[in-house]
Amino acid sequence: MNPPAVQFSVTEEVWPMDRPFRISRGSRTEARVIVVTVVDGVHTGRGESVPAKRYNATSASTIAKLEETFAKLGTQPDRATVNEFLPPGAARNALDCALWDLEAKRRGKRAWELTNIPVASEVSTAFTISLDSPEAMAENVRSHPAAPILKLKLTGDDLDLPRVEAVRREAPGARLLIDANESWSPSHYKNIVTELSQLGVSLIEQPFPADKDAVLETLDHPIPVCADESCHTTADLDRLKKRYEAINVKLDKTGGLTEALRLTESARASGFKILFGCMVCTSLGIAPSRLLAKTTDFVDLDGPLLLAKDRDHGLHYENGKVGLPSPKLWG
Asked: Which of 306, 301, 280, 279 minimizes the C-alpha distance to 289?
């Protein structure tokens, strides 16, 4: 007997942020997310994604891609078919994760039971410090004294090192990750990487533009370097082996949990360290990523903490740790 016919819908939601959030490419005061809902008359599955201008995606283009795909999928969709119809990105992420959620509910299991991967009841996650003056970034750190891991947004100017120094003074025991969002030059890297190492920085994320990262093969790496914009799917790994020690896995780049599982396994086999990251989004967007947190070296799943308010049944965050999603949220 075939399962009930599935119907699809997609909406955009706008979530105000707790404070303006700034990176090297610009700032924002709200998060715009896409939510896909799949229903079969008995069960409902949901998935959330964040279209990014960096990848030429808008809410309108993402919704248009999804509506076109809904028409092709028919009433008995599966994740393999979704991956054939949609390229990696926000549209596929929302639909893929909605189908994982639907399958878990239909089978009466949690999503991690379907993946056969180990999970932890809670994991430590980074808290992101938005790009600002050294003094303002230090003040932001003082507002989050329990954060065991801090991720600092930098921009390639003369204040980058003072920013890290100011944060280190406020958080002498925290693990520090820094994210340049493609804003550095090779000379800037060489000028500050030794000092950053002495300050105990654990990871440098995407210092150079993705199309100019070959220079990493010629530079010393006293701190592991992590590919973010340079790494989307498993197909990217071979190109990155001589340039990076780590990769950032984000579902909005992989196009959902299905490819993220493959990428994580392949990256481990290739010797990469793994950072599981996120966009600024609600707990619905974080929940699928949360399943893989036990298998990674660095966890940066703080998106909901940057919002003025999370959605109902959101993930539980306390003392720098995040728990597993409730079935009322996802999976």
From this structure: 301
Catalytic-role residue among 72, 153, 321, 328: 153
Instruction: Report helix, strand or coil for 207.
Output: coil
Cα separation, 257 vs 325, whole angstroms? 15
pLDDT of residue 246: 98
* 124 touches 148 (CB < 8 A): yes
Judged against a pLDDT cut of 80, whether residue 245 lies above it is answered with yes
Assign 243 to helix, strand or coil.
Answer: coil
What secondary structure letter does DSSP report for 234? Answer: G
CB atoms within 10 A of CB 187: 9
Query: What does the pLDDT read at residue 141?
Result: 96
Report how far residue 115's alpha carbon sits from residue 207's, in angstroms, rounded to the nearest whole number. Answer: 33
**Confidence bin at 150 (pLDDT 50/70/90):** very high
- Which of the following is catalytic: 65, 151, 250, 253? 250
Residues 6 or more apart from 198 whose CB is under 8 A from it?
none
In 107-235, at which residue ranges do the beta strands (DSSP E only) sit? 122-124, 126-129, 149-153, 175-179, 201-205, 225-227
Which tokens hold the place of 152? 């600092």
* CATH fold match for the domains 7-108 and 122-323: no
Encode burial over 289-304: b for 16+ CB neighbours within 10 A, e otherwise: bbbbbebbbbbbbbbb
**Whole-number percent of the chain with pLDDT over 70:** 100
Number of residues that this document lists for the chain: 331
Return the closest-CA partner of residue 126 out of 292, 299, 287: 299
Token duo for residue 317: 């965050």
Q: Is 212 a catalytic residue?
A: no
Q: Domain ranges for the chain, please list them.
A: 7-108, 122-323
Instruction: Tell me the CATH number for domain 122-323.
Output: 3.20.20.120
Return the DSSP state at 307.
Answer: B
- Domain 7-108 is classified in which CATH homologous superfamily? Enolase-like, N-terminal domain (3.30.390.10)
153 assigned to active site: yes
